[in-house]
Amino acid sequence: MKIAVTYDNGNIFQHFGKTETFKVYEVEDGKIISSEVVGSNGAGHGALAGLLAGQAVDVLICGGIGGGAQAALAEAGVELCSGAQGDVDQAVEAYLKGELISTGVNCDHHHEDGHSCGDHGDGHSCGGHCGGHCGAAQPAFTGRNVGKICRTHYKGTLNDGTQFDSSYDRGEPLEFTCGAGQMILGFDKAVADMEVGQVVNVHLAPEEAYGMPDPNAVFSVDIAELPGSEALEPGQQAYLANQFGQPFPVKVVAKDEKTITFDANHELAGQELNFQIELVEIK
């Protein structure tokens, strides 16, 4: 698997069509094994898509990107995760951990043509338990850690005590830029004023976590119009792509001979969440 990131002096370049260099990562078993910086030779966005396809790139991570470029990437078979910002290496690590989600993905596009379907075992995703929308607007809160790279250990539980996620179990702290919109709001706000070594316990209402379930995010598609959906079964996780080729996670909730119904709400939408958070390091 290859991941390309628009590159400018270690950071994600924010205008895809004017990108002069990409950093291309070779990934095996979810781990980066090598990387190199390649030039774009001044190509426009259509040619850039061809350049990436020629490099056998599977995924592009970038900042801003227009509709024409998105269409060109989709045509070239390159998966897109847009709206990212900050350090390129950290963005790729976040993507591989399932903590990076492409901006612009929303339910308004679910009924557009051009869907494709992939199962949950593709080896990568654009959404995780704590990940928010990369590149989102700056949250309306302040704190000593806002704008800094924070590494945290955490354990997340539901009100009945069920654990849904834990960085302790994975043995690796979660790294993100506080206040950059990479995390759910309540988690981000909790870390904003913490000190290294401090442990806090927070209770989050749905509004500061994954919101309330949206009935419009439940939709049906003709199986004949969605290649790969015939193999899916109720309860299974999958990824669809909107008309720009941007992926979004869904759960199969129903299926008959002709149609399949998906739920694009986050699995924790509507839930009150509890987090034990330990600030391990500030970079």
Describe this structure in words.
- The two termini are about 30 Å apart.
- By secondary structure, the protein is an alpha+beta fold.
- Strands 1, 2, 3, 4, 5 and 6 form a 6-stranded mixed sheet that branches.
- The protein is built from 5 helices and 16 strands.
- It folds into 2 domains: about 1-95, Dinitrogenase iron-molybdenum cofactor biosynthesis domain (Nucleotidyltransferase, domain 5); about 120-283, Chitinase A, domain 3 (Roll).
- It has helices at about 45-55, 65-75, 90-95, 165-170, 185-190; strands spanning about 1-10, 10, 20-30, 30-40, 60, 80, 115-120, 150-160, 165, 175, 200-205, 220, 235-240, 245-255, 260-265, 275-280.
Could you give the topology of this structure?
Layout: E1 2-8, E2 11-12, E3 21-28, E4 31-39, H1 45-54, E5 59-61, H2 67-76, E6 79-81, H3 88-96, E7 117-119, E8 149-158, E9 163-166, H4 167-170, E10 174-177, H5 185-191, E11 199-204, E12 218-222, E13 237-241, E14 247-255, E15 259-263, E16 273-282
Parallel strand pairs: 1-5, 5-6
Antiparallel strand pairs: 1-2, 1-3, 3-4, 7-13, 8-9, 8-10, 8-16, 11-16, 12-15, 13-14, 14-15
Helix pairs in contact: 1-2
Give a nutshell description of this structure.
This protein has 283 residues and is of the alpha+beta class.
